UniProtKB/TrEMBL annotation:
InterPro entries registered for this protein in UniProt: BsaP_C (IPR058605)
Protein family (similarity comment): Belongs to the BsaP family.
UniProt KW keywords: Biotin biosynthesis, Iron, Metal-binding
UniProt keyword Iron, yes or no: yes
Described function: Required for the activity of the biotin synthase BioB.
Entry superkingdom: Bacteria
Recorded coiled-coil stretches: none
The name this protein goes by in its record: Biotin synthase auxiliary protein
Domain Biotin synthase auxiliary protein C-terminal: 42-68
Organism of origin: Nocardia bovistercoris
Amino acid sequence: MDARYNPFTGEPVVPGHDEAIPAAAALGLEPPRYCEQCGRRMVVQVSPDGWWARCSRHGLLESAKLERR
Ligand SMILES: [Zn+2]
């Protein structure tokens, strides 16, 4: 299964259908709220350096790792 979920709405992503991504999110300022892989709501923590979000099944996602090291 390679189903994906919108990280901001938790809705299943339909192939060929545009995803609605908030402008702040597109800039990396807004943390995702849902796991892209399973659609579960994640635990989100925002810090001065960025944010991290944790899915109980898929682990930690960090903004710092998505940008630069
Ligand atoms: Zn997950």
